[in-house]
Design a protein that fits this description.
globular
């Protein structure tokens, strides 16, 4: 099976790609990467025990309509009917983010990914990494997996945009989807590896 991953250079993304390549025989992972992250490609391949045939970069950005420029768009069209799973992890989770950043990356970025996946054809499944933040900052009681819009309120753009981006997947995806809501991801439970050393991580 072939996979398409956004946010593959992020903390969770690196582990996901490594696991896909290690555990799925013959897996080919297409990773959407910004041009500014080109220097991370060799390191990512080394971390994932991948080569140029198993981890293929697709240069673009979730904030771009169509995810890429016109040249790379042709390459994306060639992926139609060839992708079985899309994992959308690209997002901004900086608690110092602005409303505009959240709307552009988390919301419009998700909408662009959903539009891309809808056009892939075949039996593709969209896996969207949301957040426990969709429960809001004032919800009292147990928030179950089957709950979504319970009238919760949001005082921070991160909480608000994670709720809204999940709504985009629920309302606009024409393919089957799965939604994951991780809580605070501090680091690797085995090695202790971590990316951030500020705030609660510190």
């Amino acid at each position: 099976m072939n996979y398409f991953v956004t946010g593959g250079t992020g903390f969770i993304g690196r582990f996901l790609i490594r696991k896909l390549i290690a555990e799925r025989k013959g897996a080919v992972v297409y990773a959407l990467m910004r041009e500014a992250s080109k220097h991370k490609l060799d390191t990512l391949r080394a971390q994932c025990n991948a080569d140029e045939k198993t981890l293929i970069p697709v240069w673009g950005d979730v904030t771009q309509a169509g995810l890429t420029d016109e040249t790379t768009t042709q390459k994306l069209k060639a992926l139609k009917q060839k992708i079985g799973m899309v994992y959308h992890l690209a997002a901004v989770y900086d608690m110092g983010m602005t409303e505009e950043q959240g709307d552009q990356i988390n919301n419009e970025g998700t909408r662009n990914v959903v539009e891309f996946v809808n056009g892939l054809g075949g039996n593709v499944i969209l896996n969207h990494v949301s957040s426990v933040a969709v429960a809001g900052n004032n919800y009292v009681g147990m928030f179950r997996e089957n709950m979504f819009d319970e009238g919760q309120e949001y005082s921070h753009p991160y909480y608000r945009t994670k709720f809204q981006s999940e709504a985009i997947v629920r309302n606009e995806s024409t393919v089957p989807y799965r939604i994951y809501r991780p809580g605070m991801v501090v680091g690797d439970s085995v090695t202790g590896e971590m990316d951030k050393v500020d705030g609660p991580y510190y």
